[in-house]
Amino acid sequence: MLVRRIARPLLASIFVSGGINALRTPEGHAGVASPVAEKTARALPVNLPTDPQQLVKIDAAVKVGAGTLLALNKLPRISSLLLAGSLIPTTLAGHRFWEEKEPEARQQQQLHFFKNLGLLGGLMLAAVDTEGRPSVGWRTRRAVQDAADATRRGGQAVREAAPF
Prior knowledge:
Elements: H1 2-24, H2 26-43, H3 52-71, H4 76-94, H5 103-128, H6 136-161
């Protein structure tokens, strides 16, 4: 569908651009990321580096890679999930409006926080978009129902054909 071909690159563009920027200047992002970096590294079941610059580079690589895949319409559901997972800690680290004392800075951070929530909503929609095809869950339920119906019909045919 034409809408998907246009919407996915538009949605991906902010992630590719931001990821490239973070890869070029990770030190500029590391200071903002450090309050959340340690908590995120501890909360995840995998061993991630605790160095904020290294985490910024990993996050940036995810954004560039998954954003490019989404823009090219390759693995759009998986790439959307990766971007959504990357966006949450980025938002919590970069737009902590509740800590801002100055009203103008608070308003700007709040604006970016809610913008990222809107992007997260778009990524969630992209992650569940089956492009009009039935989902795996629906196909599984349908296959189970078809098998049950076939078994019932087979049992009925055996009962009708049995001499007893």
